[in-house]
Q: What sequence folds into this?
């Protein structure tokens, strides 16, 4: 694990956006395509704002959420809605947003179809993750009903998980998909999450799911 600290959040967001853009550019020049996987939530919003204005061959970039709440896109709780508002606009409007939601009562009903949509865009070129104070990442929550399966080496691409802390049912990329990313960045802010990260390094992934991706990750932190 690499750990990078920044004097303030604004500098961190600008620096990380620049690093992500550079890594995507390398894949686009070499392979003619790239895959970017991003979290929901408001914390990475400034990174999305910056990336949306970067000159890249966005038409050949696939954007995949790390995870999604099982809610329609018009919900305020939708990660897809947030990413469309903050990232898939400006120059980045040409990027392909790969869905992690489809209309159905339960995520299990659509897992196969959604997984087939994700499969052609793997492995992930650049992965940006967040982490909760409970040490969850993506929708890999401590205490989730199928966490052990989602952490296993033979887990499928996507799984539906339920956890008390998660609220709605979630659909998430599983640990082996996250671990296979070529570049892994974890974005955290504040003393509480820095302390949680330090705890995670001493715990198994079943108790601190972010542990599953720490070894090859660069963690970016600002107060």
A:
């Amino acid at each position: 694990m690499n750990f990078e600290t920044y004097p303030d959040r604004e500098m961190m967001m600008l620096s990380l956006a620049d690093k992500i853009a550079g890594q995507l550019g390398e894949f686009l020049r070499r392979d003619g395509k790239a895959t970017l996987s991003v979290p929901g939530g408001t914390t990475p919003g400034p990174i999305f704002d910056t990336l949306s204005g970067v000159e890249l061959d966005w038409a050949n970039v696939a954007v995949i959420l790390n995870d999604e709440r099982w809610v329609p896109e018009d919900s305020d709780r939708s990660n897809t809605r947030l990413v469309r508002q903050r990232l898939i606009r400006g120059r980045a409007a040409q990027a392909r947003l790969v869905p992690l939601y489809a209309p159905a009562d339960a995520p299990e009903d659509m897992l196969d179809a959604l997984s087939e949509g994700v499969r052609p865009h793997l492995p992930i070129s650049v992965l940006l993750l967040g982490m909760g104070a409970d040490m969850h990442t993506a929708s890999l929550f401590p205490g989730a009903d199928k966490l052990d399966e989602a952490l296993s080496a033979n887990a499928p691409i996507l799984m539906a998980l339920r956890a008390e802390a998660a609220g709605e049912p979630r659909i998430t990329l599983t640990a082996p998909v996250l671990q296979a990313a070529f570049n892994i960045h974890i974005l955290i802010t504040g003393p509480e999450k820095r302390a949680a990260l330090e705890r995670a390094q001493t715990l198994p992934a079943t108790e601190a799911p972010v542990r599953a991706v720490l070894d090859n990750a660069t963690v970016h932190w600002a107060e």
